[in-house]
Amino acid sequence: MVSEALKRLWHKLGSPRWFFALTTPWVTGLGCAALILLLWGTVWGLAFAPADYQQGNSFRIMYVHVPAAMLAQSLYIGMGVAGFVGLVWRMKLADVAISASLPLGMLVTALALFSGSVWGAPTWGSWWEWDGRTVSTLVLFFLYVGIFALREAILDSTLRARASALIAMVGTINIPIIKYSVEWWNTLHQPASFSLTEKPAMPSEMWLPLLVMALGFYCFAAFVVLLRMRAEILQREMHARWVMQWITERRVA
Amino acid sequence: MITSALRRELRILVRAKGSVINPLAFLLLSTMLFVIAAPALVDEASNRPSTLAAGILWTLVLLTQLLALDSMYRRDFDSGVLEQTLLNAQVPFVAVLIRILMQWLSTGFIIALCSPLLGIALGIAPKALLITLFSMLLGTPALSLLGSIGASVTVGFNRGGIILALLVLPLFLPTLIFGADMINAAQLGGSIMPQVYALGLISLISLAIAPFATLAGLRISLEMQ
Amino acid sequence: MITSALRRELRILVRAKGSVINPLAFLLLSTMLFVIAAPALVDEASNRPSTLAAGILWTLVLLTQLLALDSMYRRDFDSGVLEQTLLNAQVPFVAVLIRILMQWLSTGFIIALCSPLLGIALGIAPKALLITLFSMLLGTPALSLLGSIGASVTVGFNRGGIILALLVLPLFLPTLIFGADMINAAQLGGSIMPQVYALGLISLISLAIAPFATLAGLRISLEMQ
Amino acid sequence: MLTLNALSCERDGQALFVPLNLAVESGDFIELMGANGAGKSTLLRTLAGLHSQYLGQYQADAFLYQGHRLGLDGLLSPLENLAWFAGLEGQEIQRDALLDALATTGVLGKAFAPCNTLSAGQQRRAAMARWLVSDKVLWLLDEPLTALDTDAQTLLRSILAEHCAKGGAVVCATHSPIDVAGKVTVTLQAHDELLQQGEAH
Amino acid sequence: MLTLNALSCERDGQALFVPLNLAVESGDFIELMGANGAGKSTLLRTLAGLHSQYLGQYQADAFLYQGHRLGLDGLLSPLENLAWFAGLEGQEIQRDALLDALATTGVLGKAFAPCNTLSAGQQRRAAMARWLVSDKVLWLLDEPLTALDTDAQTLLRSILAEHCAKGGAVVCATHSPIDVAGKVTVTLQAHDELLQQGEAH
Ligand code: HEM
Ligand SMILES: Nc1ncnc2c1ncn2[C@@H]1O[C@H](COP(=O)(O)OP(=O)(O)OP(=O)(O)O)[C@@H](O)[C@H]1O
Ligand SMILES: Nc1ncnc2c1ncn2[C@@H]1O[C@H](COP(=O)(O)OP(=O)(O)OP(=O)(O)O)[C@@H](O)[C@H]1O
Ligand SMILES: [Mg+2]
Ligand SMILES: [Mg+2]
């Protein structure tokens, strides 16, 4: 009984139409949450949080940098999971998810790199330092670019889906290895003068806004990915009857 | 099946002698370029053990491997041998494994054998030359294995070469780091065991993933026709 | 004829976007690998102007160019477009020249534009960054031109990639030396005019030789079928 | 040996031809015809498991597939290619049997020359020799007449007829009819033709 | 238009076929036959200037050569390929004329799809469209019937007949006879056959 129900649910999950219907109410919710959290976090972080006693106001870049860096990794892992699901169960939705998160992931990684460099200029005295985290973020960026290039190169949509699922999966397996090795390398060679590994002892007025910002980033990402997935579904199922219906209903409303 | 596949690979190796000699020649040439373009490198090395040399050597090995990977499945793909292999082999898994093994023998293995020589050219401390060889033997299998995955997915493209690089070089990073580190540890007289474990682990994990992923990649490429 | 050939090249460039983005990505990646494998490089650079960095940058540009060269004529050769071009073009010379120009635009030119960035990563002195760009603009045409000769001769081989490297890298050597030297001279505050003349001369001589030699090479490759 | 159940191949999500039902038994010779682009090659690749976008079901016995790419290694001679192929299938390799097969298809004279120095027809003949040493019963062939001269065309016919007589089965895409006794011609009807005739689904 | 004077092609220093004398005039249709490996493809490549090992002389007018490799860029559509080809020859490009040519050969429906997504026969048809827009008088064709369906085969015949009727000339290697009025069949006799018959040179 239970397994039957699970099977049916699983089958349903694979249906773009069902996904589309299910997520319709989420879009506005996520969008609003993202907007509110980001606004709240920004105002709090930029205007009300106390300045750092060492770095002054430049530390406020943290409110962009840290959430961006976290999101960059999460999105890649999400792609890996989607890749696994797509390869094993041949679920079309998985590829929709990959194609929806890929550009956002690249952008967010670029943002983490950029904000990090901008932050590095006043704190490290240089735009770029070769350190464990900077390198693993850079490698993450290249992993994204690799999948992007691969997708560009394959015309057929089914094959594109399978190839990028495979590569996303292999990349995800390797992410821990890469991270571990890069950190090892850093500890051996770099003086720990600017080590990021220690959690800075921040007062709560400083990290609470960070938490809000991080939540905001994640909501924003969920919102964008969802929106892009829905757009992609509409495009892929352009000729299906339910899409026509949906469009006419919206016209009427 | 294994003997006849091995026999074929050996024959091709003998006919296309280039496949053994060329990667080596490329490595020698690019090492030479380096030494010419950056003579300061060797100058400094003559004074104290150079931690640069190990990194440069390993990077060049990576790039050489990359160049060789591009043609790993291309010939078989274009001629239809690949599709026949996957369709008719009793165990396609074994066929792929043999291919990877031969690729390693004709690149990584040969490179490893010659690495002490290159180490000398780049100014690696004499006592670390044997460890250089050892680090290559331990690390290059991972390059062939992980590279095979990238090669299998890109073999259907005309412009595969550089997409392959993008896919594969990030995966090569850990090998590079531990490989270079092992040589440096030997130069500085420290323990090399952590690096040995790390390299071995990476090669083992690659061995576990690569044949399956390669098979999947080849199947995808064959559908592209 | 020129407009229609240019239009075709542009279309292919747009369809196979990889051909512009990928060499650049490869260059960035291999630079990163270098710095990771040899962090001492940048450490030392931060103390005094690094004469190593210029050499390494130019060597990496050479290797990138090499990777891109392999596919320069391959697609056209395999599809038979090459044979039709040589048979039907009003002036085959011009057709080849256009091909080389586009190859340069999609590799050397783009690389040149991004070279200051790489210079920063490798620790080239800020005052020499503009000269870095300039040396790339002056030197990379020679790479495309000379490389085209090698690519034309090896396009008929399956394992062209590495033979190509062997043929072409020695030809690249003068460009490498003068290019790296020019940056170093700028870093040390010396005159760069001798290197400018030398690089310009090399590119001009290559321009005079390459199209004819490429045509001859392509004819030979076409006979191999 | 081979059954197709409302099978229709897809490219980019579009069905190519009107769904096909077919049951191939031992001894059958199926001639697959249809206009250029009807989907013959795609159908054969699907049956060989090299194309996974399709509607309907099929089920196939152990098969031999011969597509446009011959599967001969250009650096190896026909004999070496044959030996490798036999080994791949796990057969015992008998050099004389292989040479016999090459003699039958008329490329004994080139048995030791690298395949990329063979003419188009000679390469086809070398590939045909492979069918003779294979023990697969179902043959899936894509335009096997290509590049064959008149002698070789006759030879091909007799090889196919003999294979069917021995209890094998052949599915063969072709544009010029192949005279084999008892053949069944299946014509693929392109899906858009059907739509044009107003019989929209 | 084309004259062959005791021409015999060589491979690895071995003459392939008995030297050939031939004078092709405007309106001629030459059907080039011969066993697999007789040297048809090599002869055509020689005439096109793509093979330089031969004995004897030949002289040819401006020609169009169509070998086994079609000369279509896989990334470009048939229309774009045609436009490029016309530009290469220095012709004024008229998009409508190109589309007309594609319509004649029956690939108008694929005029805008990348060539590597066309079926074997569709690619051949696209290549045929190129002959129609070319202004070369002498056509050198290597097995043009390959992969064409029955419609396209008929079309090919009529295109060739029309070209000859308009004062062109065609030399065409083929294994199945092409019915064009007034055709001349030249059969290449392999050199080693000759040797076997004891008429050593
Ligand atoms: C381009 C340069 C930089 C890159 C690529 C980078 C990358 C990263 C990454 C990947 C994280 C981890 C996010 C997570 O927890 O998942 C991180 C966190 C962080 N980074 Fe950066 N970073 C850069 C520069 C900087 C600079 C210059 C500073 C300030 C001195 C800085 C301060 C921080 C802080 C405070 C955290 C949070 C640490 C924690 O919570 O564990 N970063 N960065
Ligand atoms: N690249 C090559 N190198 C050496 N010999 C070759 C090469 N290509 C063909 N040959 C040999 O030259 C001879 C003639 O080949 P060619 O391709 O011209 O024959 P053909 O008449 O076109 O045959 P087919 O009907 O099979 O197409 C053959 O015996 C072949 O083995
Ligand atoms: N790689 C591809 N990607 C997308 N579409 C393709 C691809 N290959 C073929 N097609 C399309 O699929 C259809 C069927 O092609 P297929 O090669 O199966 O035809 P066919 O019946 O074998 O034709 P022919 O007689 O010309 O060989 C064609 O319309 C073609 O345009
Ligand atoms: Mg077909
Ligand atoms: Mg021929």
In short:
The complex is a heteropentamer, with 1 copy of chain A (253 residues), 2 copies of chain B (225 residues) and 2 copies of chain D (201 residues). With 253 residues, chain A is mainly alpha-helical.
Keywords:
heteropentamer, A: 253 residues, mainly alpha, 8 helices, B: 225 residues, 10 helices, 0% strand, binds adenosine-5'-triphosphate, binds magnesium ion
Q: Please, could you describe this protein's structure?
A:
- The complex is a heteropentamer, with one copy of chain A (about 250 residues), two copies of chain B (about 220 residues) and two copies of chain D (about 200 residues).
- Chain A is mostly helical.
- Chain A has a single domain (about 30-190, about 200-245), classed as Four Helix Bundle (Hemerythrin (Met), subunit A).
- Chain A contains eight helices and no strands.
- Chain A has helices spanning about 1-15, 15-50, 60-90, 90-125, 130-155, 155-190, 205-235, 240-250.
- Chain A is globular, with a radius of gyration of 21 Å.
- The two termini of chain A are about 40 Å apart.
- Residues about 190-200 of chain A have low confidence and may be disordered.
- Chain B has about 220 residues and is mainly α.
- Chain B has one domain (about 1-225).
- Chain B is about 85% helix and about 0% strand.
- Chain B contains ten helices and no strands.
- Chain B is elongated.
- Chain D has two domains: about 1-60 and about 140-200, Rossmann fold (3-Layer(aba) Sandwich), CATH 3.40.50; about 75-135.
- Chain D starts with a strand and ends in a 5-residue tail after the last helix.
- In chain D, helix 2 packs across helix 3.
- With about 200 residues, chain D is of the alpha/beta class.
- The radius of gyration of chain D is 18 Å and the shape is globular.
- Chain D has six helices and nine strands.
- Chains B and C meet through helix 2, helix 4, helix 5 and helix 9 of B and helix 2, helix 4, helix 5 and helix 9 of C.
- The site of one magnesium ion has 3 residues of chain D, from helix 1.
